[in-house]
Amino acid sequence: MNRREFLVTGLAAVVQGQCSGGYSVTRPPENWYVDSRNGYDSNSGLDPWQPLKSIGALLSRAPAAGAFIWLARGSYWREEIPKLSMNVTISAFGPSVSNPVDDLGRSLPSDRPMLDCSNIAPNSAFTQTLGYTYVYQITWASEFGSSKTAQRVWENGVRLIRAKSLANCDATPGSFYATNPSGTGSDIVWIHAADGSNPAMNGYVYELAARNYGINARDSHYVTVNSLATRRNGHNDGSLLSSYMANDCWAYDGQTHNFWVQGTAINCGVQYCEYPLGYGATTMFITFTDGTVGIPPGHTPGTVLYKGCQIIGEDRVLTGGYYVHCTGSAQFDRIIYDNCSAQDVNYAFEGVSATHVILYNCSCSGCQYAVGWGGGTTKTVYEIGCTWILNVIGRGWNGQDYGALLLYCFGCRFIVENATAIWAYYAQTYQIQNCTFYVTAGSGYPMILFPPSPGTALMLWSNNLVWMAPEVILDIYPGWTYQGDINDWFSTSHAPSMTYQGTVCTSLAAWQAATGQDPNAITTDPQFIGTPLTGDTRIATSSQAYTLNIGADVASVPAAADALYQMALSLAV
Q1: Of all residues in the chain, what percent are helix, strand and coil, respectively (each to 5)?
Q2: Is the predicted pLDDT of residue 164 greater than 70, yes or no?
Q3: Is the distance from CB of 382 to CB of 359 less than 8 angstroms?
Q4: How much is the CA Rg of the chain, to the nearest whole Å?
Q5: If you count DSSP H runs as helices and E runs as strands, how many of each does the chain have, helices first?
Q6: Are 277 and 296 in contact (CB under 8 A)?
Q7: CA 506, CA 512: separation in Å to the nearest integer?
Q8: How many other C-beta atoms are found inside a 10 Å radius of the C-beta of residue 80?
Q9: Ramachandran bin of 136, using left for φ above 0, alpha for ψ from -120 to 50, beta for the remaining angles
Q10: Are 498 and 475 in contact (CB under 8 A)?
């Protein structure tokens, strides 16, 4: 074989992905580029200078397994990315875009490529509903099935209120009414404009949810999504679904759920979520499995990691934050929240099925309660270096379970304003160390309440700072064994009032006699130098509490918290 024949034969082998001697050549992965502002569907889509324009054109090319899909920053689509091949990566590309806008010229929250699940309704399609003064109806097309979906409406970008009936809609400006989608692809939606005008004539923009999801990477195994945004989903499960890896992604204005996570979410966020009547718990982030949904074949639920994630809510009564739920015998091995936050929701972190739960440097504000872990499975919960600001009427800090729960809480801050109780119950062991409790609720409420637990339970309470206005009420029920020392129990008005297994103690001496514990406890002012209601619970280094290493803001806490976090990670594997 001469040199020319050798080269031709070798080239043919490369094209076929084969070489002699049993070796194979891996083809380079596909790269697809889509740009809603500068692309054309007639382009190749194979380089950033020849991008496609629409998601539909991309999908028609059927990206192969392992492909990279690049969506241009500042792009906006009223389309959906459905299930894709395995190992696909979808990312933003290009320079940042100042003042990104949607297809109507309205500002978007960021320049992340946006997939909007709503469509624009033609004003001419509205007709007045007989028998009602302000109600107008439209026959609306969507991809919704008849289960776990809901109609949704926006007028000039503002979500309309969900009315309970046609009569309620007629009486409520800025509302709409709809029954559950029929699954036929066409349903009637009734609207009452915010100013009572005729939608067919007022020139306002009406948008209705039309697609289940913006990105559905839940049923596509090992799909990574980077720096993308979605909003206005019609399906219960969220507008952005990820079962593997999501980085710097945001989901806005969800229906029941906003963002589905079953793998890793880093620097992701959610903002606002609607509670459709009769659709179960509304949560911003949802982590769920029945052992098969979102889980690759041959695998079992493993670790879910949230890191640097944010929740911005609008409803402190009906909407939850981070939620973990499994059905049947399925449960995740561990759920890790690292530097995550929640604002203005009912609860910040809650779940029912995880063997190990770790919360590290997490925070919440404007919530009814911070942590709730219920269910029938054995689990261990670590709360390390967290700050819980609970400034609405509610239950405060809630660590709960109906089986065996071990709670380790170290270096945390509990800022409770107007809450009715700080609850911790149905557990076997609570170990609370170097935490600060700052409570300003009125007299008469049990501020630190440990209700009964089945069987025996142990509470280890050391180096904690408890500041109450006007009084301290610690109520430890029969069945609990208390072990504690080097705590500061301070009340702004008089000596602390505490109850141990039915014995009321109105002084520190009485508490020490009843429990046989706290021989080195104090009841002195910790001398806050920060603003505790904002989470800044620093105390004067000259205070007795600081000298005794009490509270979350003493010098030893940061390094010890980091060490405990690493230990918790190793034990949870």
Answers
A1: 10, 40, 50
A2: yes
A3: yes
A4: 28
A5: 6, 49
A6: no
A7: 11
A8: 22
A9: beta
A10: yes
CA distance 516 to 423: 24
Tell me the backbone φ, ψ of residue 106, rounded to 5 degrees.
-90, 145
Rounded-to-integer distance, Cα 162 and Cα 568, Å: 44
DSSP notation for 417-459 = SS-S--EE-S-SEEEEES-EEEE-PPTTS-SEEE---SS-EEE
Ranked by mean pLDDT, the top range of 8-22, 298-312, 401-415 is: 298-312
Span of 146-160, 304-318, 515-529 with lowest mean pLDDT: 304-318
Strand pairing category for 206-209 and 153-155: antiparallel
Residues whose CB is less than 8 angstroms from the CB of residue 325 and which lie 6 or more positions away in sequence, other chains included: 286, 287, 288, 351, 352, 353
End-to-end CA distance of the chain: 58
CA 414 – CA 418 distance, rounded (Å): 13
Q: Residue 475: what are its φ and ψ, rounded to 5°?
A: -120, 105
How far CA 416 is from CA of 20, 273, 344, 532, in Å, comes to 72, 25, 14, 10
SS3 230: strand
pTM of the model: 0.90
Distance separating alpha carbons of residues 520 and 499, to the nearest angstrom: 19
Rounded Cα distance, 372 and 139, in Å: 42
Domains of the chain: which residue ranges?
119-209, 215-572
Nearest to 245 by CA among 218, 264, 221: 264
